[in-house]
Backbone:
């Protein structure tokens, strides 16, 4: 069957940045399994897969606008170290969740300089062009349960 809204699709993929570095891959894992048309994937990838079928391979280049969005400078902030719990060790690369006006946001510590801590709330792939090599392994109709949950079940999907 062809990929359309409410299909469960399994893909193997490699994601490469414009610098040629592999950023993510399904290599060595179950294929990524998702419910098409429910925002499980970035919009650009769903769009590219629409109408394709099992066994097809494709190369897709996705702009930030159709990926994880543009990089937003306003999500980068400097915070005094005194705002953090002194009992907690703090290191570059640490991630934590903060409450913002628009809801919870995961931020990462990007720099610690003296009493100043820089945090970045951008998605690690924000502002990046994403180059996907995709092979479609399986396309099937979703079950009632998957449709009501809004995601795929089984290996490579949700297990719960
Ligand atoms: Zn579920």
Residues:
């Amino acid at each position: 069957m062809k990929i359309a809204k409410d299909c469960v699709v399994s893909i193997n993929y490699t994601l490469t940045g414009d610098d040629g570095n592999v950023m993510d891959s399904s290599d060595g894992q179950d294929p990524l399994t998702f419910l098409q048309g429910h925002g499980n994937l970035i919009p650009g990838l769903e769009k590219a897969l629409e109408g394709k079928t099992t066994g097809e391979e494709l190369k897709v280049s996705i702009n930030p606008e159709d990926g994880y969005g543009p990089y937003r400078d306003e999500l980068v902030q400097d915070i005094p170290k005194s705002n953090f719990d002194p009992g907690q060790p703090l290191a570059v690369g640490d991630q934590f969740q903060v409450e913002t006006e628009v809801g919870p946001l995961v931020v990462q510590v990007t720099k610690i300089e003296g009493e100043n801590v820089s945090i970045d709330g951008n998605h690690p792939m924000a502002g990046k062009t994403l180059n996907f090599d995709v092979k479609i392994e399986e396309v099937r109709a979703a079950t009632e349960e998957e449709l009501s949950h809004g995601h795929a079940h089984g290996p490579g999907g949700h297990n719960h």
Remarks:
- The chain has two helices and nine strands.
